[in-house]
């Protein structure tokens, strides 16, 4: 088995870039530093351009974050706007978004092919606007990102906060907004956006995408190689910044170098872990595969919201592990995985169900010895279009 090695810098975080691009749309003097050619960012840039040119429809592809952020951004602009996307995207949970837009005085109408938005911009709600946090943090993030330059104070009430998933992404949103100049007043259940909030920052910088970095690190770990990440963001607010700690618990040697780089190298057999993934569900598919190679029982839990991702990720990941010959138990919020897995030598085809994280997980499994053909490998373009080039170079 060839070892995979990586030594370089990962492209900018799509989560940070998409937030910064929405903020930039309110302030043309703002410079956004960082680049990514992933689908989610490409659709966001194109969508914002089409929105301000008055072109319709605005295509969001399969990008859930892009669709939700753009719908709220479009609702600020008087007129009609038609947003379209893939069938899977339009079938993802969006009821909270629909209610928010209508609650701000803009008419939202769902059709089989997309959403039609029509209105004269946001109107002040008579009561605090209620945002359901139980399914996604993106609805609350989306409305805050488009709350610049209002002529009224906007009061938000957060419901189901104890059930709120991916809290780290919401904290990321608030930090970027504060850095940009928004004077948010927050407690655990209420947020006030003061009227006439304006962007005062001159520049924002999007650090490396740590979700993609984890997938690259996993390739090195599974193959016994080494990964060194340049300009690693030490104090990142990205939820997936937890991955070096998780890998360290699994027995991977993790070293912070004096030049700001992060080095990971597997020097022993992988150890099982118990890990709550409530705030970092994107780690789940790839981490599950790593756990399948660890000696003992690993429990990944706390993420029932995985059902609402690009695929139903618990079920899709379980399907991959089943093909690998892994002994596991499926939970409503994760998986219990008994390793190490005796990799089945039976060849199989694996369909990632249009989910980029599943495609990466299957690739980690293949590097670990699985005999599989990945269908639709292009789905990694959603977050890391350079993934296959990095893999090829790392195996040389």
Notes on the protein architecture:
With about 400 residues, the chain is α/β, with parallel strands linked by helices. The chain folds into 2 domains: about 15-205, UDP-n-acetylglucosamine1-carboxyvinyl-transferase, Chain; about 205-395, UDP-n-acetylglucosamine1-carboxyvinyl-transferase, Chain. The protein has helices spanning about 15-25, 40-55, 65-75, 85-90, 95-105, 140-145, 165-180, 210-225, 245-250, 285-290, 315-325, 355-365, 385-395; strands at about 5-10, 30-35, 60, 80-85, 105-110, 115-120, 130, 155-160, 185, 190-195, 205, 225-230, 250-255, 260-265, 275, 295-300, 325-330, 335-340, 350, 370-375. The strands form 6 sheets. It has a 4-stranded mixed β-sheet. It has a 4-stranded mixed β-sheet with strand order 3-4-6-5. It has a 4-stranded mixed β-sheet with strand order 7-8-10-9. Helix 6 (about 140-145) links the parallel strand 7 (about 130) and strand 8. Helix 1 (about 15-25) runs parallel beside helix 2 (about 40-55). The protein is globular. The model has no long low-confidence stretch (mean pLDDT about 95).
